[in-house]
């Protein structure tokens, strides 16, 4: 379709969404599906389950996802050591298919609030306005709109005159995620999408919902291609147009986008003078005119909200509002137009949004025209009466800032969802059937009886949602528990009608508002109806998952099974496991039947199936557990002391990591402490002349600096360039150490490559690319700043440098230090080109700390070897070496996954707050792309965040090769550690308090939940770089030490 033409859309009434196809457990029990699924054990059921279709972005069919699923399928079929890893891989695939989530979790806290089947409530009053103009300035902060500039002049003189002379004003409080789509849905449809809706994209609606546009006679909309089609593409009674995506260029002043929307509307009015049908349509009632103004958002991202470009865009928006008002007044000349001006979200100081910070949630609201009250003078203390309206009650109950110059005019703050019923009331339309907004009566100019009727219509609409949810839950529950406060709702409605009939309007209004509040509480009650059951089920699932992993590690990666065979003479530990599987399948089938009777969501089947399956697997190992208990009884007291101490230290470290999500400065104290204690320990373990203790101390203290720095990274291009030279220095020193420090036994396993690189000049080429990328950082930034654009040549060069440099480590020497140095240099150009400030230095600090970790483990390895006689060394190799020359895990090896968790999490939070959506600094991608492309930009941002994790996992893999412990065994211990933190975060998830607190609690839980899949995928990626690493062999090391 030609974008230059006004678009008329086709409407479809089919609801959007998808279904989850989960295998019926009863069919599994009756062998109607996959007859082999029971005979092979519990993992087979999940193999069948993971072949079913789950909704989610990872099922979209992209090449990377197909390759991932194919790899998992092949791994499931080819793994020959037993069913344990097949089970884990099956769970991984299900997790990947369902939004990358773990098998347990989100439905207890996140669920769409939308239900269908309610009838709209037609208001019983005359509409004060024939048409409504909605102006949404995307990304406009309230303070930047209301406050004066440095010269004392206000940036929005027209709208300030409206506030003072003929309208009402306030602050509209948005709810996280403060993104464009959820914000516009709240304004136009009147309900809040769950926080996960931000991950569902801009283009398509996750579910179908009602809106003010749907209820209008006709809607005219002009603006962004990412917003307007959401509401108008399937609306038959709409006329809309949007500009091409290529217009959204962050390297230019985006205020012209706002002018484009105005020009489209002006052209529409001009065409109506020649088109009689269009003119007749424009003079109908119940019209909505929507102008989406994207300029502030684009300029805020590109130049920050305190820049002159952003602040000037506020003036542009004000002039557009004035011109729209003049056009409407001159065209219709009937004073029957209502105007609403607001924003979908604000903008943080660093040019991002998404979280619940006041700079993101506070947006301006100005209403005037037909049906809107005139300003009311008020005292300074009047604002406190509006506390109940606020989403973040304790954060926004504050007086109007004096610098706004509006403290003498009554301010009426609203929740963002309250705007939808306000617009519906002004047009005399039914409120959107999914709206949860409260009509702000302070904005409308009605007679007393009309006020009561407006509130009653709003109440009935919310009550209908409650009744529909109650009906659905009652029809699907064997034991239904109603919401008792609304048991007599029909009597209350009759009482309201009686009070209206006797003209006791004040009492009728109060009773309607009370009923509305109870209906909202009832909606929340049914939204969390299954909360206790899901919390219990999910907790059992996580506990079972951890117990099962621990049993697997004990069986496959320790000496315990060997001891049991020797001491207990157990021929087959699973003789009677078949009975356990039969009992588990029968119980699973019974639960499935009950869920089917209750018409429970199919995802509930998956939750129950996974939990029952895990506990069935645990109980099938009862003979091993019995043998383990007998073995524990034979142990001496010092073993129990060591075991208890390890558990206490592990839990303590993990709880510190949990606390660090809220207070990142804990990492500073952590690395200051570790730097001192590790250095002292090494000082008594190895000679100080080796340099290892001092290096460990300095590297830990260097890394500790970054968590003291602000989470909002300030721009500092010279620091990024200097970081490039620091990376070159570190690479040069590593090269020198690799060639000259190998005579020391504390460096021997790390240096002296046994197999030289195929390309002798590879190191020099990598150094050259790092230096070239530093030069391009300076050149691209300065050119874009001065010329307000980025040359295509610069973009191409940056892409080539970043891509080519990441391939080079594959051709480096296979020695441990050589390969890790090459990986460090290989990812440095891409990280530098994506950096804007001190995070470029963090890259080097993290790498140095990881080398310190490797040296610490190597020192322990060296001293343990030297202290053993050759006979003990040979005996040890005979007894504990397993496949691929890996020894079995010991209790002391728990330090390795714990250290990995610390480094992995500081990679999350070392340069910001990864749990906050607003921490994604979009200006990081401007050296690669400036045209707005949300998915490519998001991919670049995520890749930047992945690079530190790649370094951590490469170091982790190198350590497992160095000390010869099984990588998979350590990975399973990492999963256990992650699950301990996940359970803690699961119980910290909040559904009360400010939405900033709620959003943070959900994001913390989501990060830890996804870490299992996240780490495994990164292991698969980094294995390409680390699989060839060859530390000095054990025998070579032993001869050298001796």
UniProtKB/TrEMBL annotation:
Membrane topology of this protein: Multi-pass membrane protein
Protein name (database record): GPI ethanolamine phosphate transferase 1
EC main group: transferase
Keywords, in A-Z order: Endoplasmic reticulum, Glycoprotein, GPI-anchor biosynthesis, Membrane, Transferase, Transmembrane, Transmembrane helix
A GO cellular-component term linked to this record: endoplasmic reticulum membrane
Gene3D superfamilies found in the cross-reference section: Alkaline Phosphatase, subunit A
InterPro entries associated with the record: Alkaline_phosphatase_core_sf (IPR017850), GPI_EtnP_transferase_1 (IPR007070), GPI_EtnP_transferase_1_C (IPR017852), Phosphodiest/P_Trfase (IPR002591), PIGN_N (IPR037671), Sec16_CCD (IPR024340)
Species of the source: Fraxinus pennsylvanica
Compartments it resides in: Endoplasmic reticulum membrane
């Amino acid at each position: 379709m030609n974008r230059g033409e006004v678009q008329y859309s086709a409407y479809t009434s089919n609801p959007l969404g998808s279904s989850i196809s989960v295998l019926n457990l009863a069919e599994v029990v009756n062998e109607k599906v996959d007859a082999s699924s029971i005979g092979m054990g519990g993992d087979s059921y999940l193999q069948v389950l993971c072949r079913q279709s789950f909704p989610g972005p990872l099922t979209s069919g992209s090449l990377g996802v197909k390759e991932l699923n194919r790899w998992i399928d092949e791994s499931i079929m080819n793994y020959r050591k037993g069913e344990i890893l097949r089970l884990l891989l099956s769970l991984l695939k299900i997790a990947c298919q369902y939004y990358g989530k773990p098998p347990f979790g989100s439905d207890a806290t996140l669920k769409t609030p939308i239900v269908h089947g309610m009838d709209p409530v037609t208001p019983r009053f005359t509409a004060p306005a024939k048409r409504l103009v909605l102006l949404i300035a995307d990304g406009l902060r309230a303070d930047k709109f209301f406050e004066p500039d440095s010269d004392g002049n206000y940036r929005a003189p027209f709208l300030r005159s409206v506030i003072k002379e003929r309208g009402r004003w306030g602050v509209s409080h948005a709810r996280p995620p403060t993104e464009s789509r959820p914000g516009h849905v709240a304004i136009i449809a009147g309900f809040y999408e769950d926080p996960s809706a931000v991950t569902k994209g801009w283009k398509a609606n996750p579910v179908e919902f009602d809106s003010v546009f749907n209820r209008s006679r006709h809607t005219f909309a002009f603006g962004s291609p990412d917003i307007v089609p959401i509401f108008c593409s399937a609306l038959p009674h709409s006329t809309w147009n949007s500009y091409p995506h290529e217009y959204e260029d962050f390297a230019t002043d985006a205020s012209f986008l706002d002018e484009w929307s105005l020009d489209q509307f002006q052209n529409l009015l001009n065409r109506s003078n020649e088109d009689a049908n269009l003119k007749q349509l424009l003079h109908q009632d119940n019209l909505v005119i929507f102008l989406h103004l994207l300029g502030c958002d684009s300029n805020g991202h590109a130049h920050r909200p305190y820049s002159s470009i952003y602040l000037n865009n506020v003036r542009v928006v004000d002039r557009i509002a004035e011109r729209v008002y003049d056009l409407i007044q001159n065209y219709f000349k009937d004073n029957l137009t209502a105007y609403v001006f607001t924003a979908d979200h604000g903008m943080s100081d660093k040019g991002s949004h998404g979280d619940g910070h006041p700079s993101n949630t506070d947006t301006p609201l100005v209403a005037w025209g037909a049906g809107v009250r005139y300003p009311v003078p008020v005292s300074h203390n009047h604002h406190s009466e509006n506390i109940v309206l606020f989403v973040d009650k304790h954060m926004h109950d504050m007086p109007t800032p004096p610098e706004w110059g509006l403290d003498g005019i009554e301010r009426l703050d609203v929740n963002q969802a309250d705007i939808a019923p306000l617009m519906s009331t002004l047009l005399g339309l039914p409120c959107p059937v999914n709206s949860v907004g409260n009509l702000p009566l302070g904005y409308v100019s009605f007679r007393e009886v009309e006020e009561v009727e407006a509130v009653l219509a709003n109440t009935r609409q919310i009550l209908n949602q409650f009744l529909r949810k109650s009906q659905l839950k009652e029809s699907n529950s064997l034991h239904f528990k109603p919401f008792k406060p609304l048991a007599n709702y029909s009597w209350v409605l009759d009482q309201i009608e009686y009070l209206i009939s006797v003209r006791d309007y004040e009492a009728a209004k109060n009773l309607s508002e009370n009923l509305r509040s109870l209906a909202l509480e009832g909606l929340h009650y049914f939204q969390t109806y299954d909360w206790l059951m899901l919390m219990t089920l999910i907790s059992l699932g996580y506990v079972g998952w951890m117990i099962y992993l621990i049993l697997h590690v004990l069986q496959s990666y320790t000496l315990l099974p060997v001891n049991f065979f020797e001491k207990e003479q157990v021929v087959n530990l699973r003789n009677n496991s078949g009975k356990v599987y039969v009992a588990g399948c029968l119980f699973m089938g019974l639960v499935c039947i009950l869920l089917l009777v209750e018409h429970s969501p199919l995802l509930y089947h998956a939750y129950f199936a996974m939990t029952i399956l895990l506990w069935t697997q645990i109980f099938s190992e009862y003979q091993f557990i019995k043998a383990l208990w007998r073995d524990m009884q034979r142990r001496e007291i010092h073993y129990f002391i060591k075991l208890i101490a390890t558990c206490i230290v592990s839990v303590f470290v993990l709880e510190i990591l949990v606390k660090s999500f809220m207070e990142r400065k804990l990492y500073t104290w952590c690395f200051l402490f570790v730097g001192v204690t590790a250095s002292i320990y090494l000082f008594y373990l190895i000679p100080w002349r080796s340099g290892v203790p001092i290096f460990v101390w300095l590297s830990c203290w260097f890394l500790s600096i970054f968590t003291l720095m602000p989470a909002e990274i300030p721009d500092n291009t010279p620091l990024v360039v200097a970081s490039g030279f620091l990376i070159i220095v570190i690479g040069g020193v590593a090269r020198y150490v690799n060639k000259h420090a190998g005579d020391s036994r504390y460096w021997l396993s790390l240096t002296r490559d046994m197999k030289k690189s195929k390309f002798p000049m590879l190191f020099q080429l990598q150094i050259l690319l790092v230096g070239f990328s530093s030069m391009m950082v300076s050149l691209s930034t300065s050119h874009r700043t001065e010329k307000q654009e980025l040359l295509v040549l610069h973009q191409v060069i940056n892409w080539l440098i970043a891509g080519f440099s990441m391939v080079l480590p594959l051709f480096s020497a296979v020695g441990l230090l050589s390969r890790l140095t090459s990986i460090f240099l290989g990812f440095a150009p891409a990280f530098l080109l994506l950096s804007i400030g001190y995070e470029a230095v963090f890259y080097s600090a993290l790498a140095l700390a990881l080398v310190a970790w490797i040296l610490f483990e190597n020192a322990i390895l060296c001293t343990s070897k030297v202290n053993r006689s050759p006979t003990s060394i040979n005996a040890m190799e005979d007894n504990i070496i397993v496949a691929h020359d890996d020894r079995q895990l010991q209790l002391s090896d728990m330090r390795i996954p714990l250290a990995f968790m610390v480094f992995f999490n500081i990679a999350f939070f070392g340069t910001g707050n990864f749990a906050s959506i607003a921490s994604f600094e979009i200006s990081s991608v401007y050296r690669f792309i400036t045209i707005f492309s949300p998915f490519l930009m998001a991919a670049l941002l995520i890749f930047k965040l992945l690079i530190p994790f790649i370094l951590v996992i490469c170091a982790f893999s190198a350590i497992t090769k160095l000390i010869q412990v099984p990588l998979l065994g350590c990975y399973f211990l990492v999963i256990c550690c992650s699950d301990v933190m996940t359970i803690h975060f699961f119980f910290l998830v909040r559904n009360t308090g400010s939405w900033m607190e709620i959003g943070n609690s959900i994001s913390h839980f989501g990060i830890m939940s996804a870490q299992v899949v996240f780490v495994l995928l990164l292991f698969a990626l980094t294995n390409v770089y680390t699989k060839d690493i060859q530390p000095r062999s054990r025998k070579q090391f032993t001869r050298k030490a001796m």
